[in-house]
Every structure is written in C-alpha cells, then in structure tokens.
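User: Let's play a game. I give you a shape written as tokens, and you guess the letters that built it. Ready? Here's round one.
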C-alpha cells in the first residue's frame, strides 16, 4: 500500500504537476490493453485495440505512466462531480480538514483521494489491495497531511518572482520536497 501518483491541477483542471511514484513492478491488475498483469488472457475477450506507448518527449514533460494518467483523469471528473454537489465538507471543519475531500473513486487496485484549495486541486492515487483497506482508512489522516504539505510547498514555489501562476510547476525544490513527503508516506524514509 503506497502512494502511486500525485497530480496538482488548476481550478479549471489544467495539470500543473503530474508524477508517479510507483515501482516499475507496479501491481496493476490489467494493463492498458486489457491483458491481466500475470500475462493471462484478454479481460474482455474481444478484439484487441493496441494503445500507443508514451513518447520520450511525453515522458519528460509529464513523468507519469499512461495507466495512472487515465485513472487520474477519471478521478478529476469525479472530483468535479463531488464539488458540484457541494456536500463534501464536514460540518464545522477548519484548517486542512476543510480542504480534505477524501475518497473519490476506485479503479482496479487504485484508490483516488482529493484535496481542494481555492485555486488548486490535488489528487493522489494509492495502490491498495483488499487486505489493506482497513489500514488505508486509518492512513487517511496521514494522506490529508501529505496533501496539505504539498499545497504549502506549491504556495512557497509561487513566491518565486519568476514562477507563473497556472503554469506547470518546474521548481526543483517543490519536486524534492514532495518526493521526500511521498517517500516518508510510502515508508522509504522510515
């Protein structure tokens, strides 16, 4: 159970930061073509339509696997729906709890969680398995703190006079701080 990918989006849904933190041996149940991860048969047992791999230019621009990008896109749509319903805030919540949206959706073994501020949205994908659902629920507060700190780092990066609001986050300091947070969350820093 670990944080597999993190995205920072503008209020309009434009990606500002998109990165996966998963190991190369990610345990997704199915790949982009519907094949089971263990090399078994086609999930839907229909004719296969191949999905193109990312080019090196695309990987350099957004270092996130395509399968995670698809799930993040779905989670972004779900986040829009949740925000439109306006029932996500807990009564009397303040501080970082007032920004915590929580669980958004489930895709295979990935659980998406959201965190919303005035001008940015944060979506985290957590690799999960059925055995770890109770543990994941217990770690929600840790994830909320991680996302609040990611927001703090984003705000600090905007204090750079050369940073541009609503553009891709290119700060190396932001990248290293968020990577450190994720590694601590995933247990690499313990």
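Assistant: Ready! My guess for every position:
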């Amino acid at each position: 159970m670990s944080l597999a990918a993190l995205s920072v989006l503008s209020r309009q849904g434009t990606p500002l930061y998109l990165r996966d933190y998963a190991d190369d041996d990610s345990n997704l149940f199915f790949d982009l073509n519907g094949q089971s991860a263990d090399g078994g048969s086609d999930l839907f047992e229909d004719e296969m339509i191949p999905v193109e791999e990312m080019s090196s230019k695309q990987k350099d621009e957004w270092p996130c696997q395509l399968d995670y990008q698809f799930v993040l896109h779905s989670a972004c749509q779900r986040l829009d729906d949740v925000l439109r319903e306006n029932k996500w805030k807990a009564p009397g919540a303040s501080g970082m709890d007032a920004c915590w949206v929580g669980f958004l959706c489930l895709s295979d073994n990935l659980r998406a969680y959201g965190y919303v501020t005035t001008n940015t949205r944060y979506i985290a994908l957590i690799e999960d398995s059925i055995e770890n659902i109770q543990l994941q629920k217990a770690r929600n507060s840790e994830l909320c703190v991680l996302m609040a700190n990611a927001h703090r780092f984003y705000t600090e990066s905007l204090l750079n006079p050369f940073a541009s609001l609503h553009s891709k986050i290119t700060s190396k300091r932001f990248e290293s701080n968020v990577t450190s947070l994720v590694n601590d969350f995933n247990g690499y820093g313990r």
